[in-house]
Amino acid sequence: MARSFFARLAGLALALAVAPDRAAPPADVQPAPTVAPGRTAPPPAQRTNISLWHGFRRHHLSVSGRLAFVVDPDSTAEGAPWIWRATFWGFSPEVDVALLSEGFHVGYVETEDMYGSPRALAIWDEFYLVATGAHGLSKKPILEGTSRGGLYAYRWAEAHPEQVSAILGDAPVCDFRSWPKGRSGAGSPADWSALKKEYGFASEEEALRFADNPVDRLAPLARAHVLLVHVYGEADTVVPPAENTLLVAERYRALGGRIALFPKPGVGHVHGLRDTGPLLEQLRGAARRPGAEP
Asked: By C-alpha distance, which of 175, 152, 170, 150 is closest to 242?
């Protein structure tokens, strides 16, 4: 890497930052109907502002100049487990709030509209250092990717498989050739144009040849025994399951990996799950696995 993690850490912007939560999510998200591997020295503590989020204490941070949150439970569970939300802070938060009530922390750094690009993942590296260092959270979080958030969660996990216990995907994008480019689904021309610019692709052909989509890089996760948990609508025409969740499941199982699927018959690109109990049990198990503690 051009700069060491120590040099990058020295450049962290730790200024006080307080900003409102993001408003309504983009059009590709609809509500449900009812690293630093090898790092030994933690980053310095930082000043924060505190607010309440669903009754829990939320730290407002600035990491690499970006808004970030760490939300604390009333009492931290053994091992300081946490779930790291990729995108759309505060949207469909049922799982986050349920885990907070069980002693998990919740983390987030705003890299919206960066589509899991290398620039976004570098910011994630910095947030990981802050969360696991100054805040003392587990070295192996659960990553949560909703819709386009799947690109962030999977691409960061595939770069740091030993630093992840599980990935929770809610109708997650697992191949940007499916969305926003669009194959059997309509795609989003505006987002496709923005993604190509964000990644620095010189041409359409270069973007389509890209070999580091989540569906292409599952082997490191399987070797690290990362649990995958996907919720998806079987009638989703925005992020078609056959090009995303079901393709990931087929390939991951062939690699010996474990994936739990929660399909919603007749449902399109609608997020959330009415009965989160079985899903939460999967996540608890992943967080309790040996090696998931700080």
From this structure: 175
Residue 230 neighbours by CB under 8 Å, 6+ apart: 168, 169, 170, 172, 245, 248, 249, 259, 260, 261, 262
| Total Cβ atoms within 10 A of residue 37 | 13
In whole angstroms, give the CA distance from residue 174 to residue 92: 20
Q: What is the pLDDT of residues 97-144, one digit of tens each?
A: 999 999 999 999 999 999 999 999 999 999 999 999 999 999 999 999
* Tokens representing residue 147 in the block: 């819709």
Tokens matching residue 107 = 């983390």
Gap between the Cα atoms of 46 and 154, Å rounded:
28
Question: How many alpha carbons lie under 13 Å from residue 73 in its C-beta half-sphere?
Answer: 20
pTM summary value: 0.84
Nearest Cα neighbor of 228 from 176, 276, 173, 282 is 282
Q: Which helix (H) or strand (E) holds 220?
A: helix 219-223
3-state DSSP assignment of residue 168: strand
SS (H, E, C) 240-273: CHHHCHHHHHHHHHHCCCCEEEEEECCCCCCCCC
Least confident segment among 147-161, 218-232, 241-255, 265-279: 265-279
HSE toward the beta carbon, residue 156, CA cutoff 13 A: 34
pLDDT at residue 33 above 60?
no
Complete domains list, the chain, with CATH = 5-16+48-288 (3.40.50.1820)
Cis peptide before 118 (omega within 30 of 0): no
